[in-house]
Specification:
By secondary structure, this protein is an alpha/beta fold. It has one domain. Helix content is 36%, strand content 17%. The protein contains nine helices and eight strands.
């Protein structure tokens, strides 16, 4: 797991990095969310009842390293079960993309500005999943049937099923419904340098899990 200390010590290798973080957190304790917050440089803010109401961005003079850009792949179950967290994360990315910070210290802002120059709508969109009300990338089914030619065709299957952007600024029903943004996802994936996935047990690895193809 990447944490604040490991990010600080290796920030020189992450300066121009965007990471793909895979959200399958229904069976773990929120570690994937913590990883994203640590990379971006944010912390949860709670109201009096203890409910998290906002992810506040840590000032750079306190963070002492650049903000790392993150592209998040959400499972359909996470998307629907934790819509409030999806909204809070989307709000965090939007605010981060317009901070009064230099682009060499804020790579969310740097990449959002580059996407905006290309005419991309919602350049701060970072939360992607399956079509609204649908689940799964179908990669596992394609692998199981043998109906694929090479790794690139599997990648196209995954992209075709995961190009819907979610969050507070998406959809027409209070931000619940996603918006298809294949152009944004494609541009983000082209500049992704690392993939992070939190596994909920040390008892097994990727090759031990049935149906793991659709998560990769």
């Amino acid at each position: 797991m990447l944490c604040s200390s490991s990010i600080s010590s290796s920030s020189s290798t992450l300066l121009s990095t965007r990471l793909l973080s895979i959200f399958r957190v229904n069976f773990i304790l929120g570690e994937s969310i913590a990883i994203v917050l640590a990379l971006v440089g944010a912390k949860p803010t709670k109201e009096g009842t203890g409910r998290v109401v906002r992810f506040d961005l840590i000032p750079l003079d306190e963070l002492k390293r650049p903000r790392i850009d993150v592209l998040a792949s959400l499972s359909g179950i996470f998307r629907d079960s934790f819509a409030n967290i999806v909204d809070l994360l989307d709000d965090m990315f939007e605010r981060c993309s317009v901070l009064d910070e230099t682009v060499d210290m804020n790579f969310i802002k740097k990449h959002a500005l580059e996407l905006a120059k290309d005419g991309v709508e919602r350049p701060a969109a970072r939360l992607f999943s399956n079509p609204p009300g649908d689940y799964g990338s179908m990669v596992n089914e394609v692998v199981g049937s043998g109906d694929w030619s090479d790794e690139s065709s599997l990648g196209e299957t995954w992209k075709g099923r995961n190009n819907f952007s979610y969050g507070r600024n998406e959809g027409t029903d209070g931000g619940i419904s996603g918006t298809a943004r294949p152009d944004v996802l494609d541009l983000l994936l082209k500049t992704t340098d690392r993939i992070v996935q939190e596994i909920d047990s040390v008892e097994y690895g990727l090759t031990d899990i049935q149906g793991m193809f659709y998560k990769m």
